[in-house]
Design goal:
The chain is an all-alpha fold.
């Protein structure tokens, strides 16, 4: 196995998190712009769909909206919209961060445009991995956790190496093999941070969300989801990019600056 080049950085929990936060800091404005441009319009559409689905008998109390008359909220449409916006945002962020981390000039506009042209591949990756992960978590918890870690570098691989969905999953599996535990530790720590940030955002808006105004509850719920995404999506994307780059350095012996797209059938 090739040795990691000097300065590439080892795959330790602290090292990965530190590099991820530094990458986040360097591209914070662009990253926030990408997520905001995708998530905010999506939340506006969610508000419109939910408001339009409520009957005149709907009312709110203690932060809960009662539809009155058994009106079914457009749950499937809302879920699909959130799913698509998350996939596009993570793809664009991965492109932005992987280009930045490997020393290539890039911008949030280019990254968003690139992800948009690869939306089908990103969607395919999300569907394939999502179905298998759902089975893994539903039937046996441990396989779900294992696959989550094994496939954590799939999106950066897809965005950087221009491979298909299945190839990206296979590529991530091959890279993580032998480094599963440090990858798991980094992801677990990031998850704790994400949960903490989401909780903090919810707590800040909790008082207003207990209102009896339907519009206020819906608006604040949308703000909460948007703010949570704007803050946490870049962290998750930066983390997976650092994992991807450092795994390639560890296993292929190349520095981030000399890293080049290299499709693989592994």
């Amino acid at each position: 196995m090739p040795r990691a080049p000097l300065g590439a950085g080892s795959l330790t929990v602290g090292g990965v998190l530190s590099a991820s936060l530094d990458l986040y800091r360097r591209q914070a404005r662009g990253a926030w712009t990408i997520v905001a441009l995708i998530v905010v319009p999506a939340q506006v559409l969610v508000w419109i769909m939910v408001r339009a689905s409520l009957s005149s008998n709907a009312h709110a109390s203690g932060g809960t909206i009662y539809t009155g008359g058994g009106v079914t909220l457009p749950t499937v449409a809302i879920t699909l919209l959130g799913f698509l916006s998350a996939i596009l945002a993570i793809g664009a962020l991965s492109r932005l961060f992987v280009e930045t981390h490997t020393g290539r000039p890039t911008s949030w506009e280019e990254s968003l445009g690139y992800a948009s042209t690869h939306l089908v591949a990103l969607l395919g990756l999300a569907v394939v991995s999502g179905v298998l992960l759902a089975l893994g978590y539903t039937l046996f918890l441990i396989p779900g956790v294992f696959l989550t870690v094994a496939w954590s570098a799939a999106v950066p691989a897809l965005m950087f190496e221009r491979v298909g969905a299945v190839q990206a999953l296979s590529r991530s599996w091959a890279l993580v093999r032998g480094y599963w535990w440090p990858t798991f530790g980094a992801l677990l720590l990031a998850l704790v941070i994400v949960v903490g940030v989401s909780f903090l955002v919810d707590e800040i808006l909790a008082g207003a969300q207990s209102s009896s105004s339907i519009d206020l509850i819906l608006v604040l719920a949308g703000i909460s989801r948007a703010l949570g995404a704007i803050v946490t999506y870049p962290l998750l994307a930066a983390l997976t990019v650092v994992i991807y780059v450092r795994l390639r350095a560890q296993k292929e012996g190349v520095s981030p600056e000399s890293l080049m797209p290299r499709p693989t059938t592994a």
